[in-house]
Specification:
Elements (H helix, E strand, L loop, with lengths): L12 H26 L1 H16 L4 H13 L22 H4 L43 E3 L7 H6 L6 E3 L2 E3 L11 H8 L12 E5 L5 H6 L5 E6 L7 H8 L3 E3 L14 E7 L7 H13 E10 L9 H13 L3 E6 L2 E5 L16 E2 L17 E2 L34 H21 L12 E4 L6 H4 L7 E7 L6 H6 L4 E4 L12 E7 L17 H11 E11 L1 H13 L2 E7 L9 E7 L10
Parallel strand pairs: 4-5, 4-7, 5-6, 7-8, 11-12, 13-14, 13-16, 14-15, 16-17
Antiparallel strand pairs: 1-3, 2-3, 8-10, 9-10, 17-19, 18-19
Length: 598
């Protein structure tokens, strides 16, 4: 059989096809290179690629790799901004997530945090038109409307004196549902029955606080009130409170103990807080009793106190108070005032709620993700002198070592050394590092690792309040902080904090790496990148961060500070301090979303 002679180009069609594909692919790569390098398309694709990388939650390995690069300083781009609709995002109080949970005892309105791998790694932007907040004390009465343009409370509660819109501001006349004529006259009336003045009372808890007209008015009486409310239909009420410069955070009395130690508050106040105190066998009243200092005062205004169609609820409330031997001091209209007994409750006794005393296995100050107990805390279960009348009056109680400090070995010596150390350190912060403490620029302060509250105590002459955070896995010293007349909460810094974005002017942390480590171990439970992104979320634009730790840790912190867009300097420690420490002082830059990123 003969062979057909073909031209050379047609002798091997398979070979020609392969060469064609390779050539086309090569020219496509060249074209793509020129597009990426020399046209705006390249910048757009790179930005979207980084955004996809930073916001990705579908691949934990990818997220872990990014965290590792950021800690090593090998990721040179700043962390991207979160979407524009996240300006008020609180990861653990996300209505979209929590609305799927049980309504029983308001479980769905408590803290429910996403896993770190489910959390977008991005920086919360300020809202459009955000301004540096009005400074204290003017902020007590007015704030910028554009910083939280939520008109719901003003529209619904303006006639009750909560707040109203006036030009570029929200104005706070000082009223409330139960005191539309103003909190000042309401507090003056309470003073007929309670020692409001004179330093006998110092720490107060305001439950379901609205915009904290009560807490704001108590400040001039020398009473430091921690106000709380859940994230609920009154959109952003706690955000308004913090913008005003009043101590507050987001919290719900539901299925768990509130994150405070036993016998912390001298006064507990509820003005139309609508907490069903006698429901669930009086579980909520029992929790209030755990928190109230012996000899302290409980004030409930509004339902069910002499309220129409709530006769049974009012009768039950009086009955449970009697069962715990509370003295009913006064009933004035819809306001009832009780005084807690100085010593142990008169339980056990016959009562319709089945109340009994807690046994010895109950630690009444264990309150981080701790289910509510249906038993009553014995005063004698906590060592020390902490009843009203046995502790010094304010301000002496700030500097006299509380007897509850004795729970730690050499506790009194530790307390006194801690007090001296922080007085020296704060003076160094102000005089050498030029931290703006003591100026109107700083009002809301957080100490993330507070121990005995020495840092806050050293600020006693400054126009600030301090949220003292005691890490839940460290020694539970928060009771000492309250005995000093300061306030704070338990928290685990491997989770986001229960506050809105942009609520603190200064955040301070000594020993930042210890917050993410297993106690007594070098193993980390979480990472510094997520922690510093959370610090950034809580910090106001142009706010200050002060972090002290070993030089190696501070070097790592400085690398991450660049990624979260802070302007940072590393400084030597005070000459008088011992140990190996450096101090990072950083300022959060005031950046805003661009039209392309929103």
């Amino acid at each position: 059989m003969g062979h057909l002679n073909l031209p050379p180009s047609k002798r091997n069609p398979r070979q020609w096809k392969l060469l064609d594909i390779v050539s086309a692919f090569f020219f496509a790569l060249v074209l793509l290179f020129f597009l990426l390098v020399f046209t705006p398309l390249g910048d757009s694709l790179a930005a979207s690629g980084r955004q996809a990388l930073l916001l990705s939650t579908s691949d934990p390995k990818q997220r872990h790799r990014l965290v590792e690069l950021l800690e090593l300083g090998h990721h040179h781009q700043p962390i991207e901004a979160c979407p524009a609709d996240s300006v008020d995002h609180m990861p653990c109080e996300d209505p979209r997530r929590n609305s799927q949970l049980s309504r029983e005892m308001n479980f769905y309105r408590e803290r429910h945090c996403p896993l770190p791998d489910e959390t977008p790694l991005c920086l919360i932007p300020p809202p459009l038109g955000y301004k540096i907040p009005v400074q204290w004390p003017e902020s007590l009465h007015k704030i910028w409307h554009s910083n939280m343009p939520h008109n719901k409370i003003a529209d619904r509660k303006g006639h009750q004196g909560w707040m109203k819109e006036e030009g570029p501001y929200f104005i706070f006349p000082g009223g409330g549902t139960m005191f539309p004529d103003g909190a000042a006259s309401y507090i003056e009336k309470l003073g007929q029955f309670i020692p409001i003045t004179g330093g006998t009372l110092r720490t107060a808890l305001d439950m379901g606080c609205g915009v904290a007209s009560f807490g704001g008015s108590m400040l001039k009486e020398g009473i430091l009130t921690l106000s709380f409310a859940p994230r609920d239909s009154h959109k952003a009420q706690i955000q308004f409170v913090l913008e005003r410069g009043i101590p507050a955070f987001v919290l719900m009395l539901g299925t768990r103990r509130l994150p405070f130690p036993a016998f912390a508050f001298d006064l507990i106040h509820c003005s139309r807080c609508l907490i069903p105190f006698t429901a669930y066998n009086a579980t909520y009243f029992v929790e209030v009793d755990r928190l109230l200092r012996p000899g302290g005062y409980l004030v409930i205004s509004g339902p069910p106190v002499q309220w129409p169609k709530q006769d049974k609820e009012w009768t039950d409330l009086q009955a449970v108070a009697r069962a715990l031997c509370y003295e009913l001091i006064a009933v004035d209209g819809n306001t009832a005032i009780w005084k807690k007994p100085d010593g142990d409750s008169c339980l056990p006794n016959q009562n319709e709620f089945g109340l009994e005393l807690c046994d010895g296995s109950n630690d009444p100050s264990n309150a981080w993700y701790f289910k509510l107990k249906k038993c009553v805390t014995k005063t004698s279960s906590v060592n020390g002198e902490y009843a009203i009348g046995t502790i010094p009056k304010w301000p002496d109680r700030l500097t006299i070592a509380p007897s509850r400090a004795l729970v730690m070995k050499n506790g009194i010596d530790l307390f006194e050394a801690d007090t001296r150390r922080w007085a020296r350190r704060v003076a160094y912060y102000k005089n050498t590092l030029n931290v703006k403490l003591g100026t109107p620029a700083i009002r809301n302060v957080m100490d993330m690792n507070a121990f005995f509250g020495g840092f806050a105590a050293a600020l006693k002459s400054d126009p600030v309040w301090v949220m003292n955070v005691v890490p839940a896995r460290k020694p539970l010293t928060l009771d000492v902080i309250y005995d000093r007349g300061l306030i704070g909460v338990y928290h685990d810094w491997c989770e986001p904090f229960s506050t809105y974005p942009r609520t603190y002017d200064l955040i301070h942390v000594a020993g930042i790496e210890s917050l993410i480590k297993l106690p007594g171990s070098s193993k980390s439970r979480c990472n510094l990148v997520d922690l510093m992104v959370e610090i950034d979320r809580m910090l106001r634009p142009e706010g200050t961060v002060v972090i002290r730790d070993s030089p190696e840790v501070i070097e790592k912190v400085a690398r991450i500070a660049h990624a979260v867009r802070w302007s940072a300097t590393i400084n030597d420690k005070e000459p008088e301090s011992h140990g190996r420490e450096n101090i990072l002082v950083a300022t959060k830059t005031f950046w805003q979303l661009t039209s392309s990123s929103s």
